[in-house]
Amino acid sequence: MLLPELFKNYLQVEKVSSITVKNYLADINHFLEWLAQKTGIKHQIVGKGIFGLFTEETLNEYKTEQLIKKTPLSTLNRRLSALRKFGQFGLRQGWLKENPAITNAGSNLLSKDQDQSDKVLSEFQKQLEKEKISPLTIKNYLSDLRHFLNWLEFS
Asked: Using one digit for the tens of pLDDT, what is the confidence trace for 93-114?
């Protein structure tokens, strides 16, 4: 049985409403697809081993990228709630030692500073493209910078 199906069973045992189950499954699948794009590791192959990548750093990167993509806060916060529940599921199964799930995003995160960071990252990306840097290298540079900016924001 695939991980999302196991999570669905867990939610049903927890007596979560059917609408919440549907939304949480969509949100977890969104996260797992994002994670597969970032790492090349698919949950369909590694199963519960995916929890080795379920870290605070990974979740913060996901949150930061969603903010940069201007995901509506209500959608992002629902996704983060689903990830917190997914972390609880991992704990209950013994696949996690602690739940690294992170707090919701607030409107204060979408400040002028965030807009300025987005502009700087965009300009940096354009400059790298002009210099004919490989798309994978550009992606990695931007990811590292987002990690750093996220760290600055939360430290």
From this structure: 888 888 887 767 764 444 455 6
